[in-house]
Amino acid sequence: MALAKIVVDGIVTKAPEKRFTQNNLPITSFTININQNDETLVRAFIMGNAAETVAETIGTGDRVLVEGRPQIEILKTEDSKEKRVVEINASLVEKIGTVTSVASATAAQSAPAAKPQPAAEPKPAAPTKEKEEIVQFADEEIVEDLIDEDEIPF
User: What does the DSSP 8-state code read for residue 128?
Assistant: First the structure.
């Protein structure tokens, strides 16, 4: 038995496709290009609750980080030749950016960093009830609960 783990980043070239097993377990699969200079495609799939999230949040042109177990699938082509396909049984898929096209991704990697332009000030959003409940601070002073240096056992 061999244990292996792979972590790759790349640009999604085929949008995620969500399917379900016979036991109603969601599986989402997508294809990423892990080498912008020489197109190298890798198929990734993820199962369970994470599959739902990936299907909703990841799209073509997004830059993603995929972590999981590598698998090699052997397919037979129409002319009876064997073709090896690299797949990743993902345990983690994280969106790390969006790229509009492969050409702009290549240009962004080879171009020197430009000075950041000041962004326009965003309009303040109306406060929602959820945000008000999440950001609440205690009125009590925490200072009373702090431990003195004499009380530390080491």
Answer: P
Q: Which residues pair with 88 in a beta bridge?
A: 44, 70
Q: Is the pTM of this model over 0.70?
A: no
SS3 24: coil
Superfamily grouping for domain 6-110: Nucleic acid-binding proteins (2.40.50.140)
Element (H, E) at 50: helix 49-57
Q: Could you give the angle at the alpha carbon of 124 between the alpha carbons of 123 and 130, nearest 5°?
A: 140
pLDDT, average across residues 24-40: 89
Counting residues of the chain whose pLDDT is more than 70, the rounded percentage is 63
Domain ranges of the chain: 6-110
Radius of gyration (C-alpha) of the chain in whole angstroms: 23
